[in-house]
Design brief:
The protein is about 35% helix and about 15% strand. It has about 300 residues and is α/β, with parallel strands linked by helices. Strands 8-7-6-9-10-11-12 form a seven-stranded parallel β-sheet, with helices on both faces. α5 crosses α6. The protein binds 3-phosphoglyceric acid (3PG). The site of 3-phosphoglyceric acid (3PG) has 11 residues, from loops.
């Protein structure tokens, strides 16, 4: 089978070699499309692909229409909001993710971002310590759980909430369950966001939640920019000159935020949470193995569009 690795933001060369090795060992042909300019490049490259490995690359209905032979798409990573599941399902194309494989990289970045903001973006201004502060984890999945463990090891008190995880499991995971999102935001010096972008979560975090945060609090977003109501965030930062926002998913209004709020806000120029050698290797190799298993015997573990 022909498998295309389409990564606008490429995996490391070492990870690519391993992914290629896994696929070729299973008898597949590998094609590469890296750092491409636009969707037209992806649409041309998928023309003869039967399998597709992507990262945050956008697999739209147009991409699917341009890929008549496509049978499987694996998103090497967690979030699959970049894939048009409806269009894929209509063609009975299996879509999978590789849950947990890049979680540690993202969790380490979330902790690093907290410290970066606590120490006023590594300027000489007097900062604060995170030890003894309380962190609220919004969604206690693979990343959220790891952020909680790392925060606890640094002496933070950990609270969490997850609509899909019962309170006793949150306790088992080492966190105190919050009874509501409002409580989480109102009681935590840091809130770290780990929810996916879905119709229910898009623009769900705005003025009301953010202004509930205690004095000097900081919101940390390594998830998706879409979950923030950006106007609400801007209003909240205006109304509360003590609050801070740090993110790995740059808001559309970042230039305005930075100009207005200076060192109280920070966004990485390009999403880098999963950009470690380890995460590239883990997620990439998992994706290759999942494709090989699917073509070998129809295994559909981690399929996110069951049909
Ligand atoms: C994910 O959903 O796995 C992360 O956002 C990482 O995305 P990336 O592979 O585009 O870096």
């Amino acid at each position: 089978m022909k498998v295309l690795i389409a990564t606008q933001k490429p995996f490391s060369a070492a990870a690519v070699a391993l992914i290629r090795g896994e696929l070729e060992k299973a008898g597949h042909e590998v094609a590469m499309l890296e750092k491409y300019e636009g969707q037209a490049d992806l649409e041309a490259a998928v023309a003869d692909a039967e399998g597709l490995i992507i990262r945050s690359d956008k697999v739209t209905a147009d991409v699917i229409a341009a890929a008549p032979k496509l049978r499987i798409v694996v998103r090497a990573g967690a979030g699959y909001d970049n894939v048009d599941l409806e269009a894929a399902t209509a063609r009975r194309i299996v879509v999978m993710n590789t849950p947990g494989q890049n979680a540690n990289a993202v969790a380490e970045l979330a902790v690093g971002m907290m410290i970066f903001m606590a120490r006023t973006q590594f300027t000489p201004a007097t900062g604060s310590e995170i030890q003894g502060k309380r962190i609220g984890i919004q969604a206690f999945g693979n990343v959220g759980r790891l952020v909680g463990q790392k925060a606890a090891a640094l002496g933070m008190e950990v609270m969490a909430i997850d609509p899909f995880i019962p309170a006793e499991k949150i306790v088992e995971g080492g966190a105190k369950p919050a009874s509501s999102l409002e409580e989480l935001y109102a009681s935590c010096d840091y809130v770290s966001i780990h929810i996916p972008a879905t119709p229910q979560t898009v623009r769900s975090i705005g003025y009301d939640l953010i202004t509930r945060m205690p004095k000097g609090a900081c919101l940390v977003n390594t998830a998706r920019k879409e979950v923030i109501d950006e106007e609400g965030l801007e209003k909240a930062l205006e109304a509360r000159p003590d609050l801070k926002y740090v993110t790995d998913v740059m808001p559309d209004n970042y230039a305005a935020l930075r100009e207005k709020f200076g060192l109280r806000v920070f966004a990485t120029p390009k999403k880098m949470g999963a950009q470690t050698a380890e995460a590239n290797r883990n997620a990439g190799v998992a994706a290759a193995r999942q494709i090989a298993a699917f073509f070998a015997d129809g295994t559909t573990r981690f399929q996110v569009n069951p049909f």
